[in-house]
Structure formats: structure tokens, C-alpha cells
Design a protein that fits this description.
Number of strands: 8
Structural class: alpha/beta
Shape: globular
Largest sheet: 8 strands, mixed
Number of helices: 10
Strand order of the largest sheet: 1-2-4-3-5-6-7-8
Radius of gyration: 17 Å
Mean pLDDT: 98
Helix content: 40-55%
Distance between the termini: 23 Å
Low-confidence stretches: none
Length: 259
């Protein structure tokens, strides 16, 4: 079922809550510029295995409200914390993909991992996001021809072949975001780093990263693995930036084993 949680006056965040009676809870934080819908191929499977799956659309993306401000790691982590408190979540797995992984890292350091028993980082945009050159190029494209930018992101996202209908679905998901929030997060990925957050995280952490990732290079997963003291790294040999779909059966199996 879907509902909204108010995180500050006038800002409501969309939450997709599947199988609320499940025995174990996984909170999914999507990547830029997508929404909770990117995890469709987890939501199709995991709730039937007894898991409660909670997908959160960040402010500015998906079905959530799209304010003009609040696109910092601190504010995005604060939004997650408000939702965790409102839903009274405890002993849950926090899972973040790409920029969602960076938000998850900030949540862990800012709130001392409040309520989180396991952390899962997928192709995480951490400890750094975009280079200045890449960010400035994406920002210019976003502000002048956002559909063209989103098509280029879609084309570079996956290592495995995707059908035209799948590409169209993925493309439209990215355009559901507002232009201003899409641009603001590009600036965030360019300007904010997460090196100081990493030593504060002691929760057991699973790092999944496609070795063919063209968006966030595999070397960053290796760096995370070195700097997160209680982490394991599982390379996905046949994935780019979308291991959650490209090797979904393996992904779902490793995730449930870890939890």
C-alpha cells in the first residue's frame, strides 16, 4: 500500500509499504534520478518470501512532493529518519542504490545507525559521486534538454541488453522527477563527499557492485570495502550500474542470505 509521510511543513514523502506484516523489514532508497519503482523486481519476489519491503521516494522524485530546497545529504537523511520514526521501524535492513547508497551512509553516520541492523550498498555513489567535469556536463544537459540527458543515463546504466519497452519505462521513471531537484542532486554529487562518514559505521554491511559500472566505477566499491570495517564486497560479474535488475535472481538470493 502507498501513503505519504510529512517530513516538514508542506513536504510529504511517498512511501510504498508492501507486506506490512512481514517478519523482516527492508527499507529501499532509490538512485538518482529514479524512484522506488526501480526495485520492482525485488518487490515482485521478496514480500512473497515473508519480507516487508518499504520503498521511499526522496523529496523531488517519484511520487513525493517536489520542494525547491532540501537537496543535501543531511536533509535527505533527516527525511529518512522522520519516516523511520513515524513508522516506528526497528531492527531493519537499510538498502541504498547509487545516490541512495550515499544517503544511507549519511543516515548511518548522522543518526548512529538508528534502528538499522544491516546495511546494503548497491553501486553506491560513495565516498565520491560525480567528477566536476561529469557533473557540469549533466547539469547543463538537465537545464537545457532533460529528456536527452535521461536517455543518455538510460543507455549507459546497464551492461546487459535491455529491450526498448524496458528502456522506455526506465526513461519515464527518471522524468517523473522535477527538473530543479534533478539538477540540485547533480550539484550534491559534485560537491559533497562522504569520507568522514565511513569510520562511524560499524553495522554489518553488504556491498554489491557491478564490475562493468560506467556510472560509479567498481574501484569505489573496493575503497568502501577497505574503509567500512565490518563490510563484505560481492562483485557482480555481469552487471553495470543496475545489479538489482541485471542479475536479479542472484541479487535477491544474496540479499536474503545476508539479512
Amino acid at each position: 500500500m502507498g501513503y505519504f509521510v510529512t517530513v516538514e511543513p508542506g513536504v510529504n514523502i511517498y512511501v510504498e509499504d508492501i507486506n506490512p506484516g512481514g517478519s523482516k523489514t527492508i527499507v529501499f532508497i532509490h538512485g538518482w534520478p529514479l524512484s522506488h519503482k526501480q526495485f520492482e523486481y525485488q518487490f515482485d519476489v521478496l514480500p512473497a518470501l515473508g519480507y516487508r519491503c518499504i520503498g521511499i521516494d526522496w523529496r523531488g522524485f517519484g511520487n513525493s512532493d517536489k520542494p525547491i530546497s532540501g537537496y543535501t545529504y543531511n536533509r535527505l537523511a533527516d527525511d529518512i529518519r522522520t519516516i523511520v520514526g513515524t513508522l516506528q521501524l526497528d531492527n531493519f535492513t537499510l538498502l541504498g542504490h547509487s545516490t541512495g547508497g550515499a544517503i544511507a551512509i549519511r543516515y548511518m553516520s548522522r543518526y548512529n545507525g538508528y534502528g538499522v541492523s544491516k546495511l546494503v550498498l548497491i553501486d553506491a555513489a560513495a565516498p565520491t559521486g560525480f567528477s566536476t567535469e561529469t557533473a557540469n556536463k549533466l547539469l547543463k544537459e538537465t537545464l537545457n534538454d532533460r529528456p536527452k540527458m535521461m536517455q543518455a543515463i538510460t543507455d549507459s546504466f546497464f551492461f546487459q541488453y535491455i529491450t526498448r519497452p524496458f528502456s522506455d519505462w526506465f526513461f519515464q521513471m527518471g522524468l517523473q522527477a522535477a527538473g530543479w531537484s534533478t539538477g540540485a542532486v547533480i550539484v550534491l554529487l559534485r560537491d559533497e563527499k562522504l569520507y568522514e562518514d565511513l569510520p562511524k559505521i560499524v553495522t554489518p554491511t553488504l556491498i554489491i557492485h557491478g564490475i562493468h559500472d560506467k556510472v560509479i566505477p567498481f574501484s569505489q566499491a573496493q575503497e568502501l570495502n577497505q574503509k567500512l570495517r565490518n563490510s563484505i564486497l560481492v562483485p557482480f560479474q555481469y552487471s553495470g550500474h543496475g545489479a538489482f535488475w541485471e542479475e536479479r535472481d542472484k541479487f535477491n538470493q544474496i540479499l536474503t542470505q545476508f539479512i
